[in-house]
Amino acid sequence: MASVGARKLLTFVTGNPGKLREAIAIFGEDLPWKLVSVKLDLPEFQGEPDEISIQKCKIAMEKVKGPVIIEDTCLCFNALNGLPGPYIKWFLDKLGHDGLNKMLAGFEDKSAYALCTFSFHSGKEGDEIMLFRGRIDGTIVPAAGDNKFGWDPIFKPIGYSRTFAELDGDSKNAISHRSKALTLLKQHLQ
């Protein structure tokens, strides 16, 4: 197992530098692990979030050959029984923020939730893949704030007057679905 000083390497399979920055900020420096990233082309599986996360982690384990984490994020509209869910990336690419809002035009219910699932494998043969989930409820609103990070401009968390995109990084990291999942993972790794 590779290490840096006394810290072991944990590979976060992502090509998204924003996700890596958020994960490093949330993890902090008090872990015996150093988080690094690698971009791998993993298949886009279909199914339920847990199934998708486990399948991606299995493939990542084979390629990384060491401790690995995979993140899968869903944006789920309650009026659409959880869709677009794990397919949010593709819906956003094709429809944009406006199109996602239009999907709910015929519904009074604009509520949604963001779900983040991290799958972790220790890199040791025989160990099971572990799942860590974080969820935050909110509302789908017209885009507001910077357009730097996915669907953040259209998701306003419950209890907040601003979208994820309008919150500063520390405020978002304190409440986000990713933060909740990573906090559970961090507790496990400690």
Automatic annotation (TrEMBL):
Residues the entry annotates as binding ITP: 14-19, 56, 72-73, 149-152, 172, 177-178
SUPFAM superfamilies, per database record: ITPase-like (SSF52972)
Alphabetical keyword list: Cytoplasm, Hydrolase, Magnesium, Manganese, Metal-binding, Nucleotide metabolism, Nucleotide-binding
GO term, biological process aspect, one: nucleotide metabolic process
Chief site of localization: cytoplasm
Cofactor notes: Binds 1 divalent metal cation per subunit; can use either Mg(2+) or Mn(2+).
UniProt: Mg(2+) binding residues: E44, D72
CDD domains: HAM1
KW Cytoplasm (keyword) present: yes
Cofactor list: Mg(2+); Mn(2+)
GO molecular function: dITP diphosphatase activity; ITP diphosphatase activity; metal ion binding; nucleotide binding; XTP diphosphatase activity
Keyword Transferase tagged: no
GO-annotated cellular components: cytoplasm
Subcellular location(s) of the protein: Cytoplasm
Functional note: Pyrophosphatase that hydrolyzes the non-canonical purine nucleotides inosine triphosphate (ITP), deoxyinosine triphosphate (dITP) as well as 2'-deoxy-N-6-hydroxylaminopurine triphosphate (dHAPTP) and xanthosine 5'-triphosphate (XTP) to their respective monophosphate derivatives. The enzyme does not distinguish between the deoxy- and ribose forms. Probably excludes non-canonical purines from RNA and DNA precursor pools, thus preventing their incorporation into RNA and DNA and avoiding chromosomal lesions.
UniProt xrefs under NCBIfam families: RdgB/HAM1 family non-canonical purine NTP pyrophosphatase (TIGR00042)
This protein's name: Inosine triphosphate pyrophosphatase
Organism (species): Oopsacas minuta
